[in-house]
Amino acid sequence: MKAAVLHNYDSGLRKKELLVYEDIDSPQEPGRGEVIVKIKAAGVCRTDLHIITGRDLGIPLAKLPFVLGHENAGEVYSIGEGVNKFIKGDKVLCYPFLTSGISTEERYGIDSHTLNRKTPGINVNGGFCELTKFSERSLIKVDQKASLTELAPLGDAGITAYGAIRKLMGFIRPQDRVLVIGIGGVGHLGIQLLLRLTPGKIIAVDPREEARNLANSLGITECYESLDQLDHFKAVNGTDFELY
């Protein structure tokens, strides 16, 4: 199968070709509880760039060469024994951790805290290729009409934003002012989640005009360009919650 493979680190991201597009072996047939997904969309995360530079992320990484890509979505290609939630052709969003569901953390639904997890694109081959193997537990079925390109980033940026907002959901009241600083890949998803899950008034700050326009298009009418404006706003009006 075709894949974009990282062979060497590039600390300055100066190479013309950071990844090599080449043929690699397809994954072995799925085992019990496993699903092979035909990748249709894979996001490029800032973490991918950090890995390419060789930056120490404080977590074990796969040995070179390997395939990046931890924000993935695609279609079920084949299923292993015991898989009963999916059939071939189902559209799926791929959760970024491969876990068994056995540990205490997994049973509480916080797979990111388990020590034995595997993460495609981090310590095992990821989604910058045609086919990737996942555990059934790591897949979320989505509507067949869903845009996989739009959904793929939810596997990392989306759950990052949701993880923060979920902690606040029971505390934000209609009269509360919620400040979001930075309307980037995580921030704009955070705004959308706040709008859907909480009743507070949302204020956004970003120096980029296109980012503020995006916030406006989502329904945020109060946007600020600079930290000076933000400081003045906070001095006059105050904020109840702040997300950075």
Structure, described:
It is a single chain. With about 240 residues, the chain is of the alpha/beta class. The protein folds into 2 domains: about 1-155, Medium-chain alcohol dehydrogenases, catalytic domain (Quinone Oxidoreductase, Chain A, domain 1, Alpha-Beta Complex); about 170-244, Rossmann fold (3-Layer(aba) Sandwich). Helix content is about 25%, strand content about 25%. It contains 7 helices and 12 strands. The chain has a 5-stranded antiparallel sheet with strand order 7-3-5-6-8. It has a 4-stranded parallel sheet with strand order 11-10-9-12. It has a 3-stranded antiparallel sheet with strand order 2-1-4, with no helix packed on it. Helix 4 packs across helix 5.
* End-to-end CA span: 40 Å
Q: Please, how many helices?
A: 7
Poorly predicted parts? none
Q: Based on DSSP secondary structure assignment, what is the total number of beta strands? A: 12
The CATH homologous superfamily of the largest domain is called Medium-chain alcohol dehydrogenases, catalytic domain
DSSP strand (E) fraction? 15-25%
CATH topology of the largest domain: Quinone Oxidoreductase, Chain A, domain 1
Order of helices and strands: EEEHEEEHEEHHEHEHEHE
Largest pleated sheet: 5 strands, antiparallel
The helix/strand class is: alpha/beta
